[in-house]
Amino acid sequence: MTRSLEEHARNWDLRHGDFADNDFLYDVYSVMRRDAPFAHTDSPFLSATPGGAWVATRYDECYRILQDWQNFSSNPTPEGAEQLAGDLVITMDPPRQQSFRKVLNPYFSPARMKALRPQIREETDRLIDRFIEAGNGDLAQVAWRQPGIVFFKYLLGMPIDDVPLCIELTDTALNGDTDETRMGAWGSLYQHLHDAVSTRTTQPPRDDMIDVLLNAEIEGDKLPFEMVVANAMLLVQAGLETTASAMSFAFHYLATHSDERNRLIDEPEILPRAVEEFVRFAGSIHGIPRTVATDVELSGHAFCPGESVIVNYAAANRDAAQFPDPDLCVLDRQANRHLGFGAGVHRCLGSNLARLEFSVGLEQVLSRMPDYALAPGTDATFHGNSITRGYRTIPVVFTPGSRRT
Ligand code: HEM
C-alpha cells in the first residue's frame, strides 16, 4: 500500500489504487468509523464538489440521514447538477419524488417479479449453456450479462443486443481513467438512449418502462422528453452494474469457499438470507451524496447549507455496532437490517428485481455446476476503485454438464 490506513481515512479517495485490494478499503472504513461520525473526502467519486464532501460511515448516522430528506436533500449541489442530464427520481425530494415513485413502483412489485422467475431462469441457463459442456468458463459473464438481458428484455423494452454496449458505456462513465473519458461515455450513453426513446415515440405502445416514462404524469404534467431519456439512463445505470457486481462477488466467494458453496447446496432454504448477506458484506454501494438543506446538527457535527455529505452504505454495513462479526460473511445471518438497498424515501426501486436475479443466478449455477471452483493457476480480476466493486473475470472449472436451451 502506498498510504497508511490513517492517511486514507483522513481523505478518502475511492479512485486511489490502494483500494484495488478488496479488504484494505474495509480496513480504512474501520478507522473512519472509529475516529469520528463523519470523515472527509477532497474528491467525491460521483461529482466534483468544491471543498469536497463529508462522509458518513457509521450505521446510525447513515440511517438518520437517509430518513431525514428535509435536512439532507437528494437535490445535487449546483456543480453536481451541471453533470446530470436532467431531473432524476434519485435527485428529487418528496413530494415530487414520491409521485414519480408511484408511477414506477408497480413495475417492480413483488407479484410482477415473481411472475418473471421462469424467464430469468431461462436467460440464466442460456448464459451457462455457453460453457457448460466444456467444464470451464468465466462466471463473470453470467453475473454481468444476466441482469442486463433481464432488465432490457422484460422491463425496460430495449433490444438485448444493446446490453454489451450499455454495460461498457456505464462502466466507462463510472470508472474511466479521466474526467474527459467519463464525460464522453455519459454523453454516448445519453445519445444512445435518446435515439432508442425517440424511435419508440413513433411506434405503437408496449407495456414496458419506456412507455411508462413516456406517458408518466408527475404532479399533473407529462415528463419532458429529456427527462424521459435521463431517467431511462438512470435505470440502466442503477440496474446493471449494481446487481452484476454483487452477483460476481457471490460467485467468486463460493468458488473460493467450497464448504460454504456445499452448505448452500445442502441447505437451499438459507438462500434468501445468503443473498441479503452478500449484499451487506460486499454488494452494496460505496456512497451516494446528499446536499445539506438547512443548518443542522447530527452527532455533534454542525452542517452548513450547501455542503455535501456522502452516505456510505457499504461502510455502514460493516459497523460492529449494528452487526455482530461484521467482517465475516455469515450465509444465514439473522437480523440483517443492512443498508445495501438504502433506506427512507429513496430506498432502492429495483431491490425485488435484484434479489430475484441474484437468487436465480445462484440457484442455476449451484444446481448445474455444483463442484465449481476457481480454475487452478488462474486469478479472478477484481475491480475495487468504484462505488460498485466486483469481479470482471472469474475463471472456473467444474464437471461438464449438458445444455438446456
Ligand atoms: C444489488 C443490486 C442493487 C443495489 C445494491 C442497489 C442499491 C441502491 C441504493 C443504495 C439506492 C438508494 C440511493 C439513495 O439513497 O439515494 C438505490 C436506489 C435506486 N435503485 Fe437500486 N440497487 C440495486 C439494484 C437495482 C436495480 C436492479 C434497479 C432497477 C432496475 C435499481 C434502481 C434503482 C433506482 C431507480 C433508485 C432510485 C430510487 C429513488 O431515488 O427513489 N436498483 N439502489
UniProtKB/TrEMBL annotation:
Taxonomic source organism: Mycobacterium deserti
Pfam families listed in its UniProt record: p450 (PF00067)
Cross-referenced SUPFAM superfamilies: Cytochrome P450 (SSF48264)
TM region(s), chain numbering: none
Keyword terms, alphabetized: Heme, Iron, Metal-binding, Monooxygenase, Oxidoreductase
Protein name (record): Cytochrome P450
Lineage: superkingdom: Bacteria
Record-stated family: Belongs to the cytochrome P450 family.
